[in-house]
Specification:
A four-stranded antiparallel β-sheet has the order 2-1-4-3, with helices on both faces. A hairpin with a 2-residue loop joins strand 3 and strand 4 (119-125). The chain has a single domain, classed as Chitinase A, domain 3. Helix content is 29%, strand content 18%. It has 127 residues and is α+β, with helices and mostly antiparallel strands. It starts with 14 loop residues before the first strand and ends with a strand. It catalyses: [protein]-peptidylproline (omega=180) = [protein]-peptidylproline (omega=0). Residues 21-31 have a biased composition (Basic residues). It comes from Arachis duranensis (Wild peanut). This is Peptidyl-prolyl cis-trans isomerase.
Length: 127
């Protein structure tokens, strides 16, 4: 029995995921490691961010690109340094839409577009 916060059984244990985040003008923090002044982010619409992510997802799913490579080059999250890897996390540690999308995936699956206060993401469950 693990001691993680597994309330009421079910799928409450920890998961592990990688993600690619594209920030846009509606994002809570309009700066990132690759855009410290937020010049690009402030001029990126949500629709444009979603289009970028859809293209990334298509390339990954079709085998043209690796998730980690796209994440390390294009993700606005500091996890880009680790190929998008967020490490293990449990319920209540991530924003709700992100958490729900991750727990709904099977290991190896990639989500559709997920909206949070941080921006838009695609998530790959890795554990």
């Amino acid at each position: 029995m693990s001691l993680s916060s597994n309330r009421h059984g079910g799928d409450g244990g920890e998961v592990r995921a990688s993600h690619i985040l594209v920030k846009h003008q509606g994002s809570r923090r309009k700066a990132s490691w690759k855009d410290p002044e937020g010049q690009v982010i402030k001029n990126t619409t949500r629709d444009s961010a979603v289009s970028q992510l859809k293209a990334f997802r298509d390339d990954i799913v079709s085998g043209k690109a690796k998730f980690e490579d796209i994440a390390s080059r294009f993700s606005d999250c500091s996890s880009a340094k680790r190929g998008g890897d967020l490490g293990p996390f449990g319920r209540g540690q991530m924003q709700k839409p992100f958490e729900e999308a991750t727990y709904a995936l099977k290991v190896g699956e990639i989500s559709d577009i997920v909206d949070t206060d941080s921006g838009v993401h695609i998530i790959m469950r890795t554990g």
